[in-house]
Amino acid sequence: MFQVQKIQRDFPILHEPLNGKRLVYLDNASTTQKPQTVIDALVNYYSTMNANIHRGVHTLSERATDAYENTRTKIAQFIHADESAEIIFTRGTTEAINLVASSWGEMNVHEGDVIVVTALEHHSNLVPWQQLVKRKNAELRIIPITDDGFLDLTDFDKIMEGSVKLVAVTAMSNVLSVQTPLKIITQKAHEVGAKVLVDAAQGVAHLGLNVKDLDIDFAAFSAHKMYGPTGVGILWARKEILEAMPPYQFGGDMVKEVFPFEAHWNDLPWKFEAGTPNIAGVVAFDAAIEYLKQLSFADIQEHDQKLYTYTRMKLRDFPKLKLFGPEDAAKAGGAVSFVIDGVHPHDIGAILNDSCVAIRAGHHCAHPLMQRFNVPATARISFAIYNDEADIDVAMEALQNVYKIFKIS
Amino acid sequence: MDLYAENILDHYRSPHNKGKLENATVSFADTNPLCGDKIEMSLRITNGLIEDVGFEGVGCAISQASASMLTDEINGKTVDDANAITNEKVYEMLGVPLTTNRVKCALLSLVTLKKALALTKL
Fold first, then answer.
1. What phi and psi values does residue B100 have, to the nearest 5 degrees?
2. Both A8 and A107 in a single domain?
């Protein structure tokens, strides 16, 4: 098991007093903080190798290209992909999913076909599919959830009837941190000839990602939720699928040869990377992967589960407070959502902020999930590897102020 | 905390003009996507005069208190008077310091009111 105090030392923002207080950062499902090595890598990139990639023959361009492509290789190994050509850099998970919806979806989804999603999805893994089925006159089906937030697979066989082309499912809910049974879903999807896309944005920093073991077809995630820079996302897909897909955006770097009236596409993965990408972000992402590689996901899950159980235990002592998500920490992990009767979550967040405790209050880009639980929003405490029980204790003390100010008992 | 002054909490707990007018001549609903605050303004307007106003909504104390105060302010006034209400006037009514994100909460009711009033011109 890793030492949380040792990890805390690696994240400079945690030692920077904020409004004169110690920062307690519990909004990690939105974005994680960055270790010094990632920050240094960004500075180092701009200080020693800034140049455009895949273009110049000069030394800096070679350096930048090597560093950029090195991250691609590292990611391929990290998620157990067959080869680095299957790793496409995007701006984030959202763009990665839009790429699939636009390119693969345009080619493979037709009138009467079915796309299946779940009631847990973040807007980024719902709205692109809503739009695709509208364009194609296809059908969107939604796997419901139980009151605890688990996928309810009772009618799954029925949902998978007909011409299902894709199941798009999150690996871990960003609101409830519920894990999904990806292997069961994938097995069924493949039986009926459907592809599986996993939104791993929330899951990857908590569970890791093994695309081989899961046997999925597409995966999307973002660097910034796994201790890397913002503005870098990854789309992984099987090579044969990517090869058959048309480009998503057109312009420089994605072409091999251009004539006045036509163009030939570049090879994978560059066919999908038009324009100058976030080179610095990709290069520094390597440091985040190196950081995660020092830890084991078994340890991270143990750490998450400990904090999950501890937080729920503490929250249960508060009156008029409702917890969402499962009791069993082994089936969840990184986040606890709750509401207090009579106080809007936004006010909870604002009052906690007075004690320098950062949590998320809102709908978490999951409107349909909020509707499912009949709340406008929730307050969410979400953990990372640098959080400990002391952080939760500070948050709980700050939560007392909510009850004082709103005179709730 | 300054933000949760007693007058704000009073309006939040016991909002004025809460509820949708049954005989409204115009109504409009808007949301704040940041936090899911929602306000619906309904007004009965006769010859340019706001005879009655009501609001429905869910949201934080700031958004709901500002709607309560704003409806008090415009009740019985002319449409022109209501249209002339500035953001600063709302800040003044609330009387608490607002950060960038909370400004959106505070102004949701005014934005919704003005959109409702714009519909009366159509």
1. -50, -50
2. no
Instruction: Indicate the pLDDT class of residue B122, thresholds 50, 70 and 90.
Output: low
CB contact under 8 Å between B60 and A351, yes or no, is no
Task: Tell whether B5 is within 8 A of chain A (Cβ).
Answer: no
Of the candidates B20, B21, B106, the residue with the CA atom closest to the CA atom of residue B67:
B106
pTM, two decimal places: 0.94
Residue of B nearest to A351 (CA): B1
Specify the number of domains making up chain B. Answer: 1
Mark whether A267 and A351 lie in a shared domain: no
pLDDT at B36: 73
CA-to-CA distance for A20 and B91, rounded, in angstroms? 27
Residue A199 has pLDDT above 90, yes or no: yes
ipTM, 2 dp: 0.86
CA-nearest residue of chain B to A367?
A: B36
| Domain limits for position A210 | 39-293
Helix (H) or strand (E) holding A33: none
* CATH assignment at residue B49: 3.90.1010.10
The distance of B63 to chain A (nearest Cα, Å) reads 10
Distance CA A319, CA B52 (A): 38
Is the Cβ pair A345, B35 closer than 8 Å? Answer: yes
- At A334, which CATH number? 3.90.1150.10
pLDDT at A376: 86
